[in-house]
Amino acid sequence: MKLGSTLARRHFLKAAGGATLALPMLPSLDTRAFGADAVVGKGRFLVTYTSDHGGILRQNMVPPDSDLTDKRMHYPGHEIRWGKLVGKSIDGERGVSTVLKAPTSVLTDRLLSRMMVVRGLDWPFYAGHHGGGHLGNIAANAGNSPDIMNVEAFPTIDEVIAWSPSFYTASELAGIKMRNVAGGSGGGGGGAVRTFGYSNPADRSGNIVQRSGIKSPRDLFDQIIGKITPTPSGPPPAPPKPIVDRFLEPYKNLEKNPRMSVQDKSRLNDWMARLSELQRRLSVQAPTLRSAACGSVTRPNVDGGPTYPDWGIERIRPWLSAMNDVIVAALLCGSTRIFTFGIVNNMSEYNDDWHQKVVHAGDQPKMLPATAAFFRHVMVDLATKLDVEYAPGRSLLDEGLIQWSQEAGTYTHDTHEMTMVTFGGAGGFFKPGVYLDLTNRTTNVTGKKDALGLPEQWYGFLYRQWLATVLLSMGIPSSEWQRGGWTGYGLQLAKENFAKVSAPGIVSNASTPLPVITGT
Amino acid sequence: MRSTVGKIVGFTASAMLMLACTGEVGRSSGKGSKGDLDLGGDASGGRNNGGGASGSDPSVERKAQFQCKSGEVGADAPLRRLTSTQYRNMIRDLVSFTAKDAVAETLSVVEPLLAKVPEDDSPQAPDASMPHTMRRLDQVVDDLRIQAYYDVSRAAGDVMGANRTKVLGTCASDSVTGNDTDCLSAFITSFGERALRRPLTATDRGYFLSFSAAGITAKSVSDLVVAILFAPEVASQVELGGAAVGTNRFTLTAHEVASRLSFHYLQSMPDNELWEAARSGKILDEQEFRRQVKRLAGSQRAKATFDEFFTDYLQLGELRSFVDKENDVLYRAFASRDLPSPNLRENMIEEALDLTRHHLADNNSKFSDLFTTERSFARTADVAKLYGVDIWDGKSEPPMLPPGHRIGILGRAAFLASASATTNPIMKGVKIRRTILCDSLGPPPPGVAVVPIPTDPEKSARQMATARTEPAPCSVCHSELINPLGFLTEGFDGLGRFRSEEPLYSNDGTVLRTVPVDDRAVPQVLFGDTREVQGLPGLVDAILESGKAESCFARHYLRFAMSRWEDDEQDGCLLEHLRKVAAGGGSMREVLESIALDSTFRQRIVGPTN
After folding, report:
1. DSSP code of residue A51
2. B-chain residues near A131 (CB < 8 A)
3. Which of A450, A473, B186, B531 would disulfide-bridge A429, Cβ 3.0–4.6 Å?
4. pLDDT digits (tens, 9 = 90+) for B489-544
C-alpha cells in the first residue's frame, strides 16, 4: 500500500469527519519519512485516556454474550470466554455495544481488527472515587473507602515505563523532549493528572508525588516539539553543550551545610535530579533532524482546555481532537512515546450536577450518549489518526497501545468487573480484534445481590494483571517493577470474598500477560 | 538518598473529594489535587500531621481547644518551595528592582513564561476524610516546574544581557576593561543579595563572577542572571538560621525572618523597607518586628494574600459555574427573573471575599463577625438582586440585609448556591462539618454508594436527602452529623435566595407543588448536643457557642502560613495561641497577625541532621 495518499487523505481527513479540523500534518507528508529509522520504528508507544465514574451497565458497555464464541477453562473453576469483535448496526452507526460505536465510515473492519475490549478486571476491594487506580496508584483516592485509606502508593505505570532503561535507550533519549506527557481536562492548570511518580524518579526514591500536567494542546506542542527547523543537509550538528551543570554549585554547597536536615537534603537531592533531567532535555536536538515527517506537523490552534465542570460535546471535542493531533505529531517527531490524560468533563449536553444527579442516580439514558461520545471523539478519533501505514500492512497504530480506562466498573464507585477498551497492538505484543470476557460466571462473587439488591457481579482477573501486561507490552521486564512476593502491578490487596472464591492462579499469575489477547 | 520501597506513603490526587452514603457523593471541582504526603517523616514536602484522626476511623470530632505542652513545636516543612504565586511575584519584583531601564522589556518577555509555571494544587490531607483546601501545601517539584524556572531565568537573562548597559550601567559597554570586575561585582551584590535574600559570601561572589571571566558580554551577563535566578535559595525558602535554641531548633537570621514575613504577607521577597530592616538587623528587635508585621499585614499586597487564604479556607473555588443555564428549561423556570449572568459565579465569590476584606479593614471587627454580619457586600446587580438589597459602592457602610435570615459568611450565595434548581443539603452539611468545624467524617461503608436512587420530583431537597441516606449504614453519619447542618441552610435556594417555600418542578419547568421549607434540625455541632435549632441564625449560634470555628480556623491558618499540615501534639501551643486570639475578641487583622507574633515564627525547627 502506498503511503502518501493513504496517510494524508484516507485516514487523516476521515478522522476529521471531512471537516476543517486542524491537522497535525499536511497532506504533502513525505512517504520517505516512514523508513525504518523514522518515527515509531524507534519503539512502542502508550497512550492512556482515563474517564471518571464508569457505571455503564454491562449490557451497554460490552458486546453481547453471543459474541463470545470461544471459551476455555483457564484455571480450575474459572472459565474465560472470547470472540472476534464484530461490528453491528447500532442506532444508525456501527459498533460492538451501545457505547462502543461510531459512524459506519469510521469504525471500519480494519479499525475493529485493531481494537480490544477486555471485561472483568478487578481491584478486589471497595475503592469509591479514585484518580490513581487507572494506572496503578490506587492510594490516590478520595478517601471514600476504609479499605484503601493510607495504603502504599506506587508510581503509575507510565512513570515506570518513562524512566525504565528498557524503554528509552540512551541514544533515543537524545531526542526525547519529555519522557511522558501528563495532562487532562478540568481543575487547575494541568487538569486532572493521573500520573504519579517518585519525587526522584531517576533514583526511584523519595515520595510518590503527583506530576504537574499540561492542559493546553498548544503548550504541549511547544514543550515537546517546539520550533520545527528545516532538515539540514549533511551530518546533524552536535547537540547543544550541556549548561545546567554550571548552575549546580550552589546546590552542592547547600547540601554540605550542617544545618540541612536529612529531610532538607533528600528534598534537595530530588531537586538536583530534576536539574539533571532538565539538562538532558535542553540537549535534545530539534525534531526534524531525526524525522522528515516531523517537518510537516503544525502547531495546534487550540490553547487552554476545559475546566470542570464544563460539559458538552462541542465544548470538549475540539480540545480532545487537538490533543490527539499533538499525540500524533509527537510520535511522528519522535519527541515522546508515552501520554496520559485524565478527562473529568462529561461529553453530554446535560447542564446540571452530573456527578450527583446523573451518575449517582444511575441515569443510564444520560450516561450512555456521553460515554459513546467519549469513545467516538477520543478513542476512535485517535485510533483513526494513528492508523497510518508506514509499511505494507503495518500502521502506526500497530506499534503502540491506546487504552481507555474508566474509574469504576458496572456500577460507579465499584472497581469490580471493570472494562478496558484499547486500540493497537503494541508492536505485535497484543493480538487485537478481540472481545475478552474474564469474568467467572460460576459464582456471584461479590454477593452484591443479597446485600444491596444489585444484579450479580462476577470476579474476573486482577486489574493489576492488566497493568503488568501493559508494562510487559512496552518491553519493561518484571524484574524492574516486581517486588518480592508480589504479583501484578500495584496494591497487593484483596478484600471481600475474593480469596475465598477466586481460582488458584489468579493471584499467582498476575505478573504474566493476560491470556488470549496476547496469544497465550 | 533513601529508597521508599515498602514505605507507606499516603496520598490522594483524585479529582474527587467525597463523602458518601447512598448515591450522594461529593466531588471537588475536578482539579487534579496533588500531594506529597508522608506518613513516615520523609522529606519531599508534605507531612502527615492531620490531627490524629485515622482515616479508617469513623467520624472524629475535633475539639474546640488544643493542648499546649510546653516546649513542643511542629517541625517546619523541609526546604519549603515558594508557591507559584510567590515565585511569580518575586521574579517580577526582582526584575523591577534590577533591570532598571530594561524593566519593561524584560517583563514583556518573562511574563508569558511566568504563566507557564504550574499552578499549585491543594493536596489531599493525610487523613483523606478531611478536605484538601490549601494550595500553599503543594510542595511538589517536578520536571515541568523546573523547566519553567529555567525558562524564566534564561529569558530574563537573555533580555538583561542584551540590555546590559541599561542594567549594569555604562561600565558594561565602555571600552575600559579594567572596571569590569567592579561593574559586575556591584551588580552581583545588588541583584544577588535581593534574589538570594541574604548577604553573599565570598564563595557566592567567586561563583557568580566566574560566569563573566571573559568579560562583560550579552552571553556572560545572561548566564550570570541565570546562575543567580536558578540558585536553590531563589525558588525555595532556605533557612539555615542563627543561634541554636535547642535540639534541632534555631533562631532565624534577620534576613530569614524578613523573608518569612514577606513571603507570608506579601507573597514575594522583602520590600525595600523590610530589606533595610533585615540588613541593619533591626528586624530582630521586638518592637520593630511587631511594627513590620502590622505594616505588612495591612499593606495593599496582603489583601491578595488574604484573598487566597479565605478562598482556600472557605473552598470558594468549589462553587459551580452558571454558564449556559438559560438553555435549561427547568433552570429557567427556577431562576425566573434571576437567570444567571455569565459572571454570576465570580460575582458571588467576590462578594464573599468582600465580606472578609471589609472585616479585615475594620479594626473593630472580630473573627465572630465573619459569621454574624447582617450586611450585604454585593457590588454587582446580580448578587444584590438575589439578596434583595441595593448595590454596595464598596466605600460607604454596606447595606443591611433583610432581617432575620441571611447572616455571615455561611449566608453568602457563594457558600449556598448549587448552580442547580435544587439545593444539595448533604454536600452543604459535609462542607460545614469539615471546613468550618474541621471534624473528620469517616468514609461510607463499602459498597453503599453504588446504589442509584433516582431523583423524585415530588420530594423536597430535604426529603430526597433523607430518603437517600436513611438506610441503616448511611444514617449513622448522615442523620446526625451531616444532613442536619445542610437542612439548617435550606432557607436558601440553589441561587442562594432566601425562601420559606420550596417549589417542586417537573423536568419541563412546571411547578408540581410547593412545600414549606423545614429548616429546623439538631446540628450536633458538638457531638452529642441534642438541642434543636432553626435556620442559619440558629446554626451560626451553635457554631459560635461551640468554639469550634475558632479552633478550625487556627488549623487552616497554620497550614496556610507554614505550608504544612498541623500536628495536634507538636503544634498544640501554636494552635491554641491562634485559637485564643480568634476567640478573644481581637480584630480580624490581629488574628491574621498573630501567627507571626508567636515566637516560633522566628525559629526554624528541623528534623534530624544526620
Report:
1. E
2. 12-16, 32
3. A473
4. 999 999 999 999 999 999 899 999 999 999 999 999 999 999 999 999 999 999 99
Three-state DSSP at A374 gives helix
Whole-number Å distance between alpha carbons of A500 and A491:
19
What is the crossing angle of helices B344-361 and B588-597, to 10°? 70
Q: Cα–chain-centroid distance for residue A35?
A: 26
Name A12's Cβ contacts closer than 8 Å, sequence gap at least 6. Answer: A23, A25, A27, A385, A388
- The structure's pTM equals 0.90
Encode pLDDT of B337-376 as tens digits.
999 998 999 999 999 999 999 999 988 899 999 999 999 9
What is the tens place of the pLDDT at every residue in A461-478? 999 999 999 999 999 999
Q: What is the 3-state secondary structure (H, E, C) of B491-514?
A: CECCCCCECCEEEEECCCCCEEEE
Q: Which amino acid is at B173?
A: S
pLDDT of residue A455: 64
- The residue length of chain B stands at 610
In which region does residue A397 sit, left (phi positive, over 0), alpha (psi from -120 to 50) or beta (all else)?
A: alpha
* Mean pLDDT value across chain A: 85
pLDDT of residue B445: 63
What value does the mean pLDDT of chain B take? 87
Mean pLDDT of B416-422: 92
Q: How far apart are CA A80 and CA A73, in angstroms?
A: 6
Secondary structure (H, E, C), A230-279: CCCCCCCCCCCCCCHHHHCHHHHHHHHCCCCCHHHHHHHHHHHHHHHHHH
pLDDT for A272 beyond 80 = yes
Tens digit of pLDDT for each residue in B86-138?
999 999 999 999 988 999 999 999 999 999 999 998 887 776 666 667 999 99
Q: What is the pLDDT of residue A394?
A: 82
Nearest Cα residue to A53 out of A393, A481, A370: A370
Contact B143 A281 (CB under 8 A): yes
First vs last C-alpha separation in chain B: 12
Query: Any chain B CB within 8 A of the CB of A309?
Result: yes
Name all contacts of B170-176 with Cβ < 8 Å and 24+ positions apart: B171/B216, B172/B216, B172/B221, B173/B216
3-state secondary structure of A296: helix
Q: Which amino acid is at A156?
A: T
Q: How confident is the model at residue A501 (pLDDT cuts 50, 70, 90)?
A: confident
Cα(B80)–Cα(B89) distance, integer angstroms: 17
Question: A96 CA to chain B: closest CA distance, Å?
Answer: 26
Which phi and psi (to 5°) does residue B518 adopt?
-105, 105
Q: What is the pLDDT of residues A371-387, one digit of tens each?
A: 999 999 999 999 999 99
Q: Which residues of A touch B454 (CB under 8 A)?
A: 361-363
Say yes or no for a CB contact (<8 Å) between B32 and A186: yes
Instruction: Look at residues A65, A244, A121, A167 and name the one whose alpha carbon lies nearest to residue A401.
Output: A167
Count of A–B CB contacts within 8 Å? 375
Determine the Cα–Cα distance for residues A435 and A85; give it in Å rounded to an integer.
Answer: 6
Cβ proximity of A397 and A124 under 8 Å = no
Long-range contacts of B161-164 (CB under 8 A, 24+ apart): B161/B217, B161/B218, B161/B219, B161/B220, B161/B221, B161/B222, B161/B223, B161/B225, B162/B218, B162/B222, B163/B99, B163/B101, B163/B102, B163/B105, B163/B106, B164/B216, B164/B217, B164/B218, B164/B221
List the 250-269 stretch of A: residues with Cβ below 8 A of B. Answer: 250-251, 253-254, 257-269
ipTM value of the model? 0.89
Rounded Cα distance between B368 and B549, Å, is 9
